[in-house]
Amino acid sequence: MSEKIRALALFSGGLDSLLAMKLVIEQGVDVVALYFDTGFGGKSFEKKKAYLREITQKIGAKLQIIDVREQFVKDILFDPKYGYGKNFNPCIDCHANMIRVAKALLPKYEAHFIISGEVVGQRPMSQRFDALKKVEELSTADGLIVRPLSAKLLPPTIPEQLGWLDREKLLDIHGRSREVQMRLAKEWGIENYESPGGGCLLTDENFSSKIKDHIKYDSFDLEDIEVLKWGRHFRLPEGSKLIVSRNREENEKLQAIKSDKYIRFTTPLPGPVSLLRKGASQEEKRLAAKIAITYTKASKEKEYEVKIAESIFKVSPFDSKEKAREFLIK
Known about the structure:
The chain is of the alpha/beta class. The protein folds into two domains: 6-200, 3-Layer(aba) Sandwich (Rossmann fold), CATH 3.40.50; 204-325, no CATH class. 37% of the residues lie in helices and 15% in strands.
């Protein structure tokens, strides 16, 4: 090739997108891996970023993290053209959005085309032939999207037609079996990659339930994403929300959250940090104190003073956690 050909890759962190990039890198193409931060890619983004840097460096790609959180929440999450998967996951619209953003970034990175790790027939909603076509139509990037793992099953793309890629060196993987991917990973020494699915929280049933419950009672802001990730979530009788941490890590996470929506409080005993939605009534505050103290080693025969905002409540724990769990969001 007389000029250096560069591709932008949609990189979820999983094996398929790694292999798709590696197949293209093997053909002498420079690859920039784009990880799109929607806010829902997992609980600990700092750990995720460290993994992404390490694994992309291993295969010879450069990593760029693209923050699309605000745009994703505003334009995609609550009004997807092609609806949701099993839970709150708008997979087709989400993937099309990533390609659309990648297409807009081609000039910035002096790149020529886009790579996706999709495998025809691997996922029932987003990777059928018709779903792939919907993605191309929504993304307005028809012809520029190369799916190296299934390229031979799909019409030739512009990069193949122009000779930037040798179609014969691309693959024809189909379906849910991952035998070929596992073999290639072993050949190329790719280890410790993420499990299929990439950890998107929107595919998780419990997390999806929390979102559905949240928007039933409240507006949704970017800060709410972090709130939804941590702790046990309770819906109190008058509609207020209570969040009670499960462990030391969640204590730290809830302490770090900056939100004007919640009152933060603790108990007089070692135990959870809790958040209570502002505007809760005195009775809800009392119940919140009682639930929170139940998740400590408090004695059922004693009363404890729990301060929430300017109010102090004397409460005893429930006889059992089962009673507190009656208010859990399911």
